[in-house]
């Protein structure tokens, strides 16, 4: 549960970390389109992290370890994990996007209470950049390019509430755009800032998991694809 994952298609993906007895995991597995193979473990077990990149070039930033949250940052080169420069703000429940381990960003999360901070990665270090308009954690994200474009949507500020707000990153700042039709937390995301999907999560009324899927189209609208 609460793993990190990256990939560009269904034939090349990487899954890592998460929670399973007896605690936070460091296990990493690579998917080749047919089966999963265990590869090199992370240096530290972690969950609720921000993840970005591909199955050969990825980052795992922040997250929850036996203590409430961490600033640790690990870089994957296709063979092994290496600890690199930490986040400026330790937190869990953050989200990230970017195409490889040299350029990307993470936003939101919980350094204590819900947070609106954004940090941009240049391949060497993190720099704080434009804040989210609405602090959030456990939000979904779509990916495109490096740190220049992407979306976050859904969240839970505070942790007992759910929201439908969607924000668009233009490389320097966040702008609020069309909301999700179904407010929810823990929502999954895939695609680009132009065409993407939001799926699953927890529906706030009544509190229950949902299979609702919505499509982000042309960067301007969200429409419901499936609500079974």
Q: What does this protein structure show overall?
A:
- This protein has a 4-stranded antiparallel sheet with strand order 1-2-5-6, with no helix packed on it. A 4-stranded antiparallel sheet has the order 7-8-9-10, with no helix packed on it. Strands 11-12-13-14 form a 4-stranded antiparallel sheet, with no helix packed on it.
- The chain has strands at residues 4-9, 12-16, 19-20, 23-24, 28-31, 36-38, 50-53, 58-61, 73-76, 81-84, 95-100, 103-107, 118-121, 126-129, 140-144, 149-155, 163-169, 174-177, 188-191, 195-199, 202-204, 207-209, 213-217, 221-226.
- The mean pLDDT is 88.
- With 228 residues, it is an all-beta fold.
- Helices cover 0% and strands 46% of the residues.
- The relative contact order is 0.10.
- It contains no helices and 24 strands.
């Amino acid at each position: 549960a609460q793993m990190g994952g990256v990939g560009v298609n269904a034939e090349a993906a990487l899954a890592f970390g998460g929670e399973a007895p007896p605690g936070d995991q460091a296990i990493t597995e690579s998917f080749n389109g047919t089966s999963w193979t265990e590869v090199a473990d992370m240096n530290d077990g972690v969950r609720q992290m921000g993840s970005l990149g591909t199955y050969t070039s990825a980052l795992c930033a922040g997250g929850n370890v036996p203590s409430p949250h961490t600033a640790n940052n690990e870089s994957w080169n296709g063979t092994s994990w290496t600890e690199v420069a930490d986040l400026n703000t330790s937190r869990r429940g953050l989200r990230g996007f970017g195409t490889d381990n040299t350029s990307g960003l993470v936003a939101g999360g919980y350094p204590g209470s819900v947070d609106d901070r954004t940090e941009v990665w240049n391949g060497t270090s993190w720099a704080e950049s434009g804040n989210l308009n609405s602090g959030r954690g456990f939000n979904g994200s779509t990916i495109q390019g490096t740190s220049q474009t992407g979306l976050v949507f859904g969240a839970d500020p505070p942790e007992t509430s759910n929201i439908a707000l969607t924000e668009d990153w233009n490389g320097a700042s966040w702008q609020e755009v069309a909301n999700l039709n179904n407010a929810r937390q823990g929502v999954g995301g895939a695609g680009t800032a132009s065409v993407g999907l939001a799926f699953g999560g927890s529906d706030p009324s009544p509190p229950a998991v949902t299979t609702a899927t919505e499509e982000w189209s042309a960067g301007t609208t969200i429409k419901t694809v499936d609500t079974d």
